Amino acid sequence: MRVGLNLIFLVPGETGGMEVAARELVPALRAAAPGVELVGFFNREAQDDPLTAEVEAVTVPVRARNRVEWVRGEQQHLPRLARRAGVDVLHSLASTAPLWGAFARVVTVHDLIFRLHPEAHQGLRTRGMGLLVPLAARRSDRVIAVSRSTRDDLVRHVGIAAAKVDVVPQGMGAPARADPVPEARLRERHALGSRAVVLSVSAKRPHKNLARLLEALALIAPERRPALVLPGYPTWHETELRERARALGVEGDVRFLGWIDAAELEGLYALAAAFVFPSLYEGFGLPVLEAMSRGVPVATSDRSSLPEVAGDAALLFDPLSPRAIATAMETLLGDAQRAERLRAAGRRRAAQFTWEATAAGTLDSYERALRAPSS
């Protein structure tokens, strides 16, 4: 089998969880099926990316930072290039896909955030995804959903037949690939003193619900209040969050870090007393598993896919209630025995999600696509 991988979306360091998933899945596919030939289709920004060494690499002549070029590359150039490369199956890994082509088509849909939380992105992208993702799902031979929650959303909101959807959970996220920055250095760098640290890693977007996390922080008495550290790429919403922190009187308790390198992130995981993830909607929720795998006790939202991923290895809370979020934080910080149980349970839970299993499920979906009538 000759498999094309649509990686046109991949702008290195800028595509969040979808990038993590691609970087882990591609080598896992190679290991799981060494007889399968993998052809990767990359944009110009990624033509020298290390991932190109894992596959037979083809450069698509677009720059994907420009959404119009991304779409043009996917709809105009990719079918022609995939046909020239002789692929049997084309797998699009980022929710959108070419709508035509003389090959079987598989698309991984990560979430339906454009439909359920359109405020997460600015207008043009939401409108574009609202058109392209349903079309990709309908025109593909198989659809991979990263969770049962996302499958149910596809059935309910897009009208995709459940029988056409393969639920293939992702692996635990990105494993540690750097030695952590020492705790003392991080505490000095970010003026943390000796305070307990609560970590929450996410993009600064409205559906991540960080405003209510700030409100929850303000509900904790100053003498017990932890330092809240918020790595993750900045967006237009960060200005609102900073203003909210000031209005709540917790500006001095919050660290907005933006993107940080792997060594610093590993250091923050190592020193964190708790990981809190209050998102209103996730297609899968990689950050929860990444924290669990590093032994950080987790509290997370009880919405969308997050209970499915966390199981009984995290505290679940109502993300619409700042009081519930604050109670979860104080439990993790104040109940040492419970925190220790969650550390152990989280490691066990994260170990159940492997990229080997993701690769096996993905290969099964390719086989089903080849047996499907042409779309």
Q: Care to count the β-strands?
A: 13
What helical percentage do the residues reach? Answer: 40-55%
Annotation field: number of helices? 14
Sheet with most strands: strand arrangement:
3-2-1-4-5-6-7
Secondary-structure element order, as H and E? EHEEHEEHHEHEHEHEHEHEHEHEHHH
Structural class: alpha/beta
Low-confidence stretches: none
Shape: elongated
Gyration radius from CA atoms, angstroms: 21 Å
Mean pLDDT: 93
**How far is it from the N-terminal to the C-terminal residue, by CA?**
19 Å
- Sheet-strand content, in percent, reads 15-25%
Largest sheet: 7 strands, parallel
What are the SSEs and their pairings?
Elements: E1 2-7, H1 16-32, E2 37-42, E3 56-59, H2 67-85, E4 89-92, E5 104-109, H3 113-116, H4 123-139, E6 142-145, H5 148-158, E7 165-167, H6 183-189, E8 197-199, H7 210-219, E9 227-231, H8 237-248, E10 254-258, H9 262-271, E11 274-277, H10 286-293, E12 298-301, H11 306-310, E13 315-317, H12 322-334, H13 336-351, H14 355-371
Parallel strand pairs: 1-2, 1-4, 2-3, 4-5, 5-6, 6-7, 8-9, 8-11, 9-10, 11-12, 12-13
Helix pairs in contact: 1-14, 7-8, 7-12, 10-13
